[in-house]
Design brief:
Elements (H helix, E strand, L loop, with lengths): L1 H13 L7 E3 L14 E2 L6 E2 L6 E6 H7 L16 E4 L8 E4 L15 E5 L2 E3 L2 H4 L6 E8 L13 E7 L7 E9 L3 E13 L3 E12 L3 E5 L2 E7 L2 E15 L2 E14 L24 E2 L6 E16 L3 E19 L24 E20 L5 E21 L12 E23 L4 E22 L12 E21 L4 E12 L2 E3 L17 E3 L2 E14 L4 E21 L4 E24 L2 E14 L5 E4 L3 E2 L6 E2 L7 E3 L7 E4 L11 E13 L2 E12 L2 E2 L9 E2 L2 E11 L3 E8 L7 E6 L3 E5 L4 E9 L1
């Protein structure tokens, strides 16, 4: 134990927390002879990234464009930044973010995440908002570690921050269209500039993305060609900037998103008991499923940012309202038929019963208001503080279908209905100041008071068409939680030179209490207290980091190295799936994590640019008495009373027919938490005519992950390595290129469903296409 702590302490002292932003834009982010400066707003004001004593990676320009080639959703960021993983069991609708191993595998629409997503200074709390498309962005910033002072609640792991391009004083814009495999079309563009002298300017940004279905649904009775994985998506943003005087800016913004497509494709029995990896049942372009599959999302936003320069300080108001609805239905068992039918009418593999569910958000509304003051000037003391208010109203509708029970689909076969209503309110009061003790040494301290309240109601009914189907109504269950908490941070920074600095940071973060009540399948005899409505108490994190940031090679190189150690107390964890296909919240006494992050960027010549990122994350649950259900899929024929998966954890209660084993998970790593993440890029160009021919390649690697809190042979994936290549010709105005993503055709499981068979889902296939763009 002592040697382990010594290694951790040595890691932090030697590495430290820092973060280079890897930004490369051949037309602006880097100079001809060296790397350009990177500006970020990680501390709510514009600063050079190398001056910010915080672990950050910023992605922008050509790197962002290359990774987004072909129109992927926000998951393209996964493993492209040290310590960041993004995954989803819903596809384009519902991304889940993990930083330094901390995230949440919860798949219900009221899931609480420890990674906050902030879009143009507005926190997006609900999962259907977090999938807003990436287009016309100035940069993406990934802030690692607790951000409880300036950003508040639900940020113990960090923040993914998006900043759009704002209206300018001169006419500017761009257009870009790509076409590729699976009839994929990605068109986006923006135009902006003054519309009333120097007092009013505007910017309109639009996006259209489309992909055809490319997975065939193969059943014993025949094949439906091109049935799944298509989508059609539209998004737009309009911004109006008013400058009535030199001291006052008013930025009004409106956004919308409309998505129509198919949900994530689940694949029955693509794992084999006792074996690692995908088996022969897996075919990337074929499935056999008898359930519905569709997905729709509509979200709308209006916001106002008002900034008044009062001389010594500036006053900032950020007001935002989001409204949305969504629905997603999929075949949870991933196959067709059931075990009580003839073998020819069920498969692939053993399907004990059908499982097909729809989750919908009939109504979501989110209102946020922030009032902030911030000091101006470059004196020894700088400060900021303010007030934040959050108000959310959410309705969720979950329906279970019985396709076999209603073969003609006359009524949809709905046999269980669960409605959830949730109202959340929170406010925070915060302040932060930085004082330069000398020209080289500065300290920063911040504190925030957080207050959270949540009221929750859930009701389960059943359709009279199926009076004997599995479950009984449970009536209405009500829960409420509340808490208040103090979060803080303290940082010291020392500049050895203008090019090299070190810093150390300690911080406390907080995640508000949450409630989960996905009660489609709890036992029919359950009382309300046993009905699957669970509460996750507040969690707090104490994090310690240090780092070094260095510009080297006369501005042609940049290396940032960071080390961290944290204790997450009363950790909110989610036990997903199991024999009742539920989400249950549990609290672990502690989760401990440590590791490092490295970012590097080099420009040895004006024609060659190299970047690399590397992170190591070691997470461990520290609770000797913590247990969870493991492997809800239980066989009653070939393996009577035995779990379908091979459990690697100590079994506390053995599996019984249609009852999962209970296992001890003390010492396990967190789900979706790889030890290693590595990414690298290379860009080489040759001048031709008025422009250049260029080649750009980017790669991302993550090591082994477990899908759930427990460990098994089957529900894991050893590693994933994906690369992209872009070849093109670029001038100051035009860019024509061909691209390919997942160039090596890596095929990896990225998640599983622990319910009634060994179901999984996989990464995206290889795609390719051509793209043409211009800017002015």
């Amino acid at each position: 134990m002592r040697s382990s702590h010594f290694r951790i302490a040595s890691l932090i002292l030697l590495a430290g927390v820092s973060t280079p932003a890897i930004a490369q834009d051949a037309a602006g982010a880097s100079t001809d002879d060296g790397l350009g400066e990177i500006v970020v707003t990680a501390q709510r004001r514009e600063e050079k990234l190398q001056d910010v004593p915080l672990s950050i990676t910023a992605v922008k320009g050509e790197k962002l464009d290359a990774m987004a080639s072909g129109g992927p959703d926000i998951r393209f960021l996964s493993a492209r930044v040290p310590s960041l993983i993004v995954e989803s069991s819903f596809g384009r609708t519902f991304p889940r973010f993990y930083i330094r191993g901390l995230g949440n595998t919860d798949f219900d629409f009221n899931a609480s995440q420890p990674v906050s997503l902030v879009y143009d200074d507005v926190v997006l709390e609900n999962p259907i908002l977090k999938g807003f498309p990436v287009f016309d962005l100035d940069r993406v910033e990934v802030l690692r570690g607790p951000q409880g002072t300036l950003f508040g609640r639900n940020t113990p792991a960090g923040i993914v921050k998006f900043d759009s391009v704002k209206p300018g004083d001169e006419l500017s814009g761009y257009g870009r269209v790509s076409y590729g495999r699976f009839n994929a079309l990605n068109a986006q563009g923006a135009v902006g500039g003054p519309i009333a002298g120097d007092k009013v300017s505007a910017r309109l940004s639009v996006l259209y993305q489309r992909q055809s279905d490319y997975i065939d649904n193969v059943l014993p009775s025949g094949t439906t060609k091109n049935a799944l994985e298509g989508y059609d998506e539209v998004a737009a943003r309009l911004q109006l900037l008013f400058k009535p005087s030199d001291d006052l800016d008013i930025l009004l913004s409106g956004q919308l998103r409309q998505l129509d497509g198919t949900a994530r494709v689940f694949r029955a029995n693509v794992f084999t008991r006792g074996q690692k990896g995908l088996n022969s049942n897996f075919n990337r372009y074929q499935v056999s499923t008898d359930g519905k599959n569709e997905q729709h999302v509509n979200t709308y936003n209006g916001s106002a940012r008002i900034t008044y320069d009062a001389g010594p300080v500036s006053l900032v108001s950020v007001t935002s309202y989001w409204d949305g609805d969504a629905t997603s239905v999929g075949d949870v068992d991933g196959g067709f038929g059931a075990s009580f039918l003839p073998p020819a009418l069920t498969g692939p593999g053993y399907i004990p019963f059908t499982a097909e569910t729809r989750d919908s958000v009939p109504k979501l509304s989110q209102f946020t208001q922030e009032l902030r003051f911030e000091s101006n000037g470059d004196g020894a003391l700088s400060y900021q503080g303010g007030f934040f208010y959050f108000d959310e109203s959410l309705r969720i509708l979950s329906e279970n279908y019985s396709t076999l029970g209603d073969p003609n689909n006359a009524t949809g076969g709905v046999n269980i209905v669960v409605t959830q209503r949730q109202k959340s309110k929170a406010y925070g009061i915060f302040g932060s100041l930085t004082y330069k003790l000398t020209d080289q040494f500065s300290v920063t301290g911040g504190i925030r008071y957080n207050n959270d309240r949540r009221r929750y109601q859930v009701d389960r009914t059943k359709d009279t068409q199926f009076p004997n189907f599995l479950q009984n109504p449970l009536g209405t269950v009500n829960r409420s939680v509340k808490d208040d908490n103090i979060t803080w941070d303290l940082t010291a920074k020392y500049d050895f030179t203008d090019a090299v600095n070190i810093y150390a940071r300690a911080a406390k973060g907080y995640r508000a209490p949450s409630i989960q009540g996905r009660i489609l399948f709890p036992p029919a005899t359950a009382t309300p207290l046993e009905s699957g409505v669970t509460v996750g108490n507040s969690e707090t994190i104490y994090s310690y980091e240090s780092g070094i940031k260095a510009d080297i090679l006369d501005g042609k190189g940049r290396i940032n190295l960071s080390g961290f150690y944290y204790d997450l107390k009363n950790a909110q964890l989610t036990a997903v799936g199991g024999g009742v296909n539920a989400n249950r919240l549990i609290n672990a006494k502690k989760v401990r994590g440590y590791g490092f992050e490295l970012d590097a960027e080099f420009k040895p010549s004006r024609h060659l640019l190299l970047t690399a990122g590397l992170s190591y994350n070691n997470t461990k649950i520290k609770d000797p008495n913590l247990t969870t259900a493991a492997c809800g899929a239980v066989r009653t024929d070939t393996f009577p009373n035995v779990s379908l998966c091979t459990i690697l954890d100590p079994i506390v209660v053995a599996a019984a027919p249609f009852s999962a084993a209970i296992v001890n998970i003390n010492g396990n790593s967190l789900p979706q938490s790889p030890r290693w993440i590595a990414n690298w890029t290379a860009r080489y160009s040759v001048p031709v005519g008025d422009g250049e021919v260029y080649a750009y390649t980017d790669w991302a690697y993550r090591s082994k992950i477990n899908f759930f809190l427990y460990e098994s042979v089957e529900f894991q994936d050893d590693h994933l390595l994906e690369g992209g290549l872009r070849l093109g010709y670029k001038t100051d105005r035009y860019d024509i290129a061909a691209f390919v993503r997942n160039i090596t055709k890596d095929t990896s499981a990225v998640g599983g469903i622990d319910f009634n068979n060994l179901t999984g889902f996989v990464n995206e296939p290889r795609i390719w296409g051509v793209e043409a763009g211009f800017k002015f």
